[in-house]
Amino acid sequence: MNSSNPTPASSPVRTAIVTGASRGIGRAIALRLAADGFRIVVNYAGNAAKADKVVAAIGAAGGQAIAVQADVSQPDDVQRLFATAIESFGAIGAVVHAAGIMPSAPIAPESIDAFDRAVSTNLRGAFLVLGHAARQVQAGGRIVAVSTSVIAKSFPLYGPYIASKAGVEGLARVLANEVRGRNITVNAVAPGPVATELFMDGKTAEQIAQLEKAAPLERLGQPEDIARVVSFLLGADGGWVNGQIVRANGGFA
Q1: What is the pLDDT averaged over residues 20-24?
Q2: Which residue in 55, 113, 143, 176 has the fewest CB atoms around it within 10 Å?
Q3: 14-248: which CATH architecture?
Q4: In the predicted model, is pLDDT for residue 240 greater than 90?
């Protein structure tokens, strides 16, 4: 665990756990929520150096953050993530589950390993993180899972990824009903193509150019575009949005 400006648990400032926050969309969400006044628990799977940079950036801007390593597919790791957040900052006001992988593989018997990896990280990870969030987020809090607008496109080679993220959307809708009575909202945000390292990996310049033109706005999304939507859902103006899949995609799908 690495930290920047930790404060006593009695501080009234809200705390948010952001999984997959060392890069890409998760990083942008962590930085935006810190700017919104949240203390941030920066979860990462393996790249401590990148997580430390996010913590440092938040601290340099006057915010408060710690970095906590945890594999979201492992029950003990997720339990430790939440326990560390509470020990460091007290009550948890929000959880944003952005951790995920995007394997590319056909629906074929030889792709079972890619399918298992996608389900383990994306769906099993969401089940564990959302499950702990349901128990640990304080009354009036917010829970957001990151899905994908690619679900509506059904592109070849996206079978494992789409299947896992469709499950995430189902979990979010069900959880919104399971936390009834505590004034907790649960939503999913489904980005379209976003210019991240995860998205760019394995794509040709031609493929990227085609995807840039796919949405009516004729550009790739930026991580900050998605962070703004999450900020809205966690803010005062998003309190009546619940059990929804918000497709932040520029009209892509």
Answers
A1: 96
A2: 113
A3: 3-Layer(aba) Sandwich (3.40)
A4: yes
